[in-house]
Amino acid sequence: MTPIRLAIVGLGKIARDQHLGAIEATDGIDLVAVASRNASLENVACFADIHELLASGVEIDAVSLCTPPQGRFEQAKAALEAGKHVMLEKPPGATLSEVFALETLAREKGLSLFATWHSRAAAAVEPARALMAERTLKSVSVEWKEDVRHWHPSQAWIWEPGGLGVFDPGINALSIVTRIMPETFHLVRSELTFPANRAAPIAASLAFETKSGLPVAAELDWRQTGPQTWDIRVETEEGTIVLTHGGSRLIVDGEAQIVEEDREYRNLYRDFVALVTKGDSDTDFSPLVHVADAFMLGRRIETEAFED
Ligand code: NAP
User: Fold this and answer.
1) What sections of the protein cross the membrane (predicted)?
2) Which of 90, 138, 145, 278 does the annotation list as catalytic?
């Protein structure tokens, strides 16, 4: 098969940290262009934005959108209308209605749309899912606490409407929980803490319930300095299952398990190649649905102003 000719849109932190290397390491896909207002790359065609790229005549089959969620819809729509397959960074968009519109557009055009969740591709996720399917669950609790100043220095978009604030990392936890849980769950309580000068929350405390009544709790906080916490703890009748380090390590009944080397983004590009080859899409928006619910049901608490 001829390799998919790919363009990256938005050459920022995640594109450089993960996408470039993962594309390089994946068979069946080649990077041929970049569209970014303030960045360029050697040895590929470079454009200021997706519209310039699509008008240029440079032949591409697909785009990978690594821009912030606000504005992603216009880029994805332009790409699909031009007949290109689309891979979306998480979160897949700024609103639910826009991502459902993209899903419909991709279907109408017969193109692949891949709403990626990189944390779902972490090494401990599938082993945890298999184990949870065999056990009797009692409760699930998520603790996702990191230092925003360290991980998101001067990312203005993240604090703007649609940037999601603490849900930008928190949605990664929800993407794992929605994958490993053997039954669906829904939100019953949400408290969101907003800095006085920001449009997005710096912390969130959420309580969910599964269909059968099991509690699922999530504490998200961006004010944690020192050791960082990205843990999911599952209490079962048979013992405790803990995913740590963002889903890359697994501890079962107190014993660290051997899990494979982390290949999150290589897994995503391998899956994208398979989707395009088969003419399929993968559009599970459930993590974004839970985040939208958290805003809808959220009690707002104001805290001190946040400065970078
Ligand atoms: P970033 O460093 O701000 O990079 C995004 C790039 O998109 C910018 O460098 C910018 O490049 C371009 N862009 C286009 N329109 C923009 C706008 N209106 N405002 C700001 N930038 C704009 O952000 P990132 O951390 O890479 O995050 C991008 C996406 O990846 C987000 O959805 C995020 O949740 C996701 N993600 C990030 C990480 C991480 O560790 N940072 C991890 C996983 C997923 P030009 O100025 O050159 O156009």
Assistant:
1) none
2) 90
| Fold of the CATH domain 4-115 | Rossmann fold (3.40.50)
Fold for domain 119-260+292-303?
Dihydrodipicolinate Reductase; domain 2 (3.30.360)
The full set of domain ranges for the chain reads 4-115, 119-260+292-303
- Dihedral sign for Cα 256, 21, 66, 105, please: negative
As separate numbers, helices (DSSP H) first and strands (DSSP E) second, the chain gives 10, 15
Residue 77 annotated in active site: no
Q: Which value, to the nearest 10 degrees, does the dihedral of the CA atoms of residues 65, 246, 184, 275 take? A: 40
Using CA atoms, how far apart are residues 62 and 9, in angstroms rounded to an integer? 11
User: What is the distance between the alpha carbons of residues 154 and 152, in angstroms, rounded to a whole number?
Assistant: 6
Confirm or reject: Cβ of 165 under 6 Å from ligand 1.
no
User: Dihedrals φ, ψ of 222, to 5°?
Assistant: -100, 5
Q: pLDDT tens digits, residue range 198-241?
A: 999 999 999 999 999 999 999 999 999 999 999 999 999 999 99
pLDDT (0 to 100) of residue 199: 98
Question: Is 177 buried (19+), middle (13-18) or exposed (0-12) by CB count in 10 A?
Answer: buried
Phi, psi (deg, nearest 5) at residue 296: -70, -40
Q: Pick the residue whose CA is nearest to atom 38 on ligand 1.
A: 14
Residue 124 · residue 242 · CB < 8 Å:
no
